[in-house]
Specification:
By secondary structure, the chain is an alpha/beta fold. It has 4 domains: 2-48 and 148-317, Rossmann fold (3-Layer(aba) Sandwich); 50-141, Rossmann fold, CATH 3.40.50.1100; 325-400, ACT domain (Alpha-Beta Plaits, 2-Layer Sandwich), CATH 3.30.70; 422-501, ACT domain (Alpha-Beta Plaits), CATH 3.30.70.260. Helix content is 42%, strand content 21%. It has 20 helices and 18 strands. The chain has helices spanning 2-9, 26-32, 50-59, 63-68, 77-89, 103-111, 123-137, 148-165, 180-192, 208-215, 238-247, 256-270, 280-292, 313-323, 340-349, 378-390, 402-406, 435-443, 475-485, 496-501; strands spanning 22-24, 35-40, 70-73, 93-97, 115-118, 140-141, 171-175, 197-203, 250-254, 298-303, 327-335, 354-359, 366-374, 394-397, 422-430, 448-454, 461-469, 488-491. The strands form 4 sheets. A 6-stranded mixed sheet has the order 1-2-10-7-8-9, sandwiched between helices. The chain has a 4-stranded parallel sheet with strand order 5-4-3-6, with helices on both faces. A 4-stranded antiparallel sheet has the order 12-13-11-14. The longest helix has 18 residues, at 148-165.
Length: 502
């Protein structure tokens, strides 16, 4: 504890980083009946808190280490932090980035004077190549989170929070990836104001810290989510795990829809657009208030970054209403006869606001409708499902069905009578040229594609839905193909929304 405090208080971050403001979010405060404050790390020179840790580490290098240069593996904010810091100090920097990295991020890093090397389809492959270069070049590796000086640099956020709030905070919500920011903030606050609750926030599909804390040891995830790519870490650090285990009060997990809702909430209060990882603090804060029913408290969320790809805004907007519990999606079955659709609309939908309505003739006995409605809360969503049942309409609540939200709502069109022995899979492809060709080339001409859906969402990975005709005797061979392919996938053949609409 004493070592960490000393490193934080003697850090050199302000040679490059700014002391960011702590601002009241009037809209969130009013909506949540609590005083909500936002720590605006999205206003740093590189639009992310990562500058603090990177600069503090590089500024403490010896002259000999500086002469050899610095190197890092990153596809995001850490890369920009290292590049910016190295330029500030007149040091050569090399950043190894995956081939899937969007050009906007590559250009930003190169704009700070770093040499960019593109290698591999993901961070792990880039990191392995980076380590090989460390061994052959002697350059100093700048770790994104598991380093005392990096943690101390991030911990200066907590020092500012205490000064800016005069210690008048009930809880602080901190995004968690590798754990550097959470470790620094929690360690500092618990040393000086142990009564302040420090809550880490992770995406539900990238929850390495939560699982590690529950197990009492570091857990390595088999895969991580791709939406909040700034915190998509398979394994947290040795140092960060130890500090978070001692000083974090709890971890809250949030899903993609809740993150989209948080991005919108921040925009409404600040007119700034944070990246998904940057909105974790607000997403966790909103969930905390909703589930704990707290009011009249002073709650702080760290807006950790704003390096958002513009192309992703469409996806965020589409998912926001669900994240705010203001939209519900249902599959509804009605009789396929004259007047049934009119009766469904007049007797059940009534004056409700319709956000989506998809229908296509699929048979002569029953019709399946994909419908979205505006709601005010979860209770209204459940009440609508009950109302459907009372009117004799079979229905399935699809609001939490990822297949429905990501693909099916855009491709409702009925079954193909020609498709036989069809199986359905969702794949995550590296978003770069040749990914689909590689998939098709690996598969050869063994199996016929019977369904395909892809829609750009502006991320490092694309989401693809594929239907394939796989005869029973070839199922083992297909499984072997999937194992060799190396792409992340989920089988959806048993998903009810597939059976109803596709």
């Amino acid at each position: 504890m004493q070592k960490l405090l000393k490193l934080i208080l003697t850090s050199r971050v302000y040679e490059a980083a700014a002391e960011t403001p702590l601002e009241e979010a009037a809209g969130l405060s009013r909506t949540l009946d609590n005083r909500v404050l936002l720590k605006r790390e999205d206003l740093q020179p590189i639009f992310s808190f990562k500058l603090r840790g990177a600069y503090n580490k590089i500024a403490h290098l010896t002259e000999e280490e500086r002469a050899r240069g610095v190197i890092a593996a990153s596809a995001g904010n850490h890369a920009q932090g290292v590049a910016f810091s190295a330029r500030k100090l007149g040091i050569r920097s090399v950043i190894v980035m995956p081939l899937t990295t969007p050009q906007i991020k590559v250009g930003a890093v190169e704009g700070y004077g770093a040499e960019v090397i593109l290698h591999g389809d993901n961070y792990s492959e880039a990191a392995d190549h980076c380590q090989q270069m460390v061994e052959t070049t002697g350059m100093t590796f700048i770790h994104p989170f598991d380093d005392d000086l990096v943690i101390a640099g991030q911990g200066t956020v907590a020092d500012e929070l205490l000064r800016q709030s005069a210690g008048q905070m009930d809880a602080v919500f901190v995004p968690v990836g590798g754990g550097g920011l959470a470790a620094g903030v929690a360690g500092y606050l618990k040393a000086l104001c142990p009564e302040i609750r420090v809550v880490g926030v992770e995406p539900a599909d990238s929850d390495a810290m939560a699982r590690s804390l529950a197990a009492g040891r570091r857990i390595r995830l088999d895969s991580v989510g791709i939406f909040a790519d700034g915190v998509a870490v398979r394994e947290v650090g040795h140092l960060t795990f130890d500090l978070c285990r001692r000083y974090l009060d709890e971890i809250i997990r949030v899903d993609t829809d809740e993150l989209c809702s948080a991005i919108r909430s921040i925009y409404q209060d600040t007119r700034s657009i944070v990246e998904p990882a940057g909105a974790l603090g607000v997403a966790g804060l909103k969930k905390y208030v909703r589930e704990r029913k707290v009011s009249g408290r002073t709650l702080v969320a760290v807006n950790s970054g704003a390096n958002m790809n513009f192309e992703r805004l469409r996806y965020v907007a589409e998912r926001t209403l669900i994240g705010e519990k203001q939209e519900a999606l249902f599959a509804v079955t009605i009789p396929e006869n004259p007047g049934s659709l009119r009766r469904f609309c007049s007797d059940v939908l009534g004056d409700r606001n319709i956000t989506e309505f998809n229908y296509r003739l699929a048979g002569r006995e029953r019709a399946h409708i994909f419908v979205g409605i505006s709601i005010r809360n979860t209770g209204e969503r459940h009440a609508f499902g009950q109302l459907l049942g009372e009117h004799g309409f079979d229905n399935i609540d699809l609001t939490d069905n990822e297949l429905a939200k990501t693909h099916v709502r855009y491709m409702v069109g009925g079954r193909s009578p020609e498709a036989g022995h069809e199986v359905l899979y969702r794949f995550w492809f590296p978003e770069r040229s040749g990914a689909l060709v590689r998939f098709l080339g690996s598969m050869g001409e063994n199996w016929n594609i019977s369904l395909f859906h892809y829609r750009s969402q502006g991320g490092d990975y694309g989401r693809v839905l594929i239907g394939l005709e796989i005869p029973p005797k070839e199922e083992d061979g297909f499984r072997e193909f999937l194992d060799r392919l190396g792409y992340r996938f989920v089988e959806e053949s048993g998903n009810p929304v597939y059976r109803l609409f596709l």
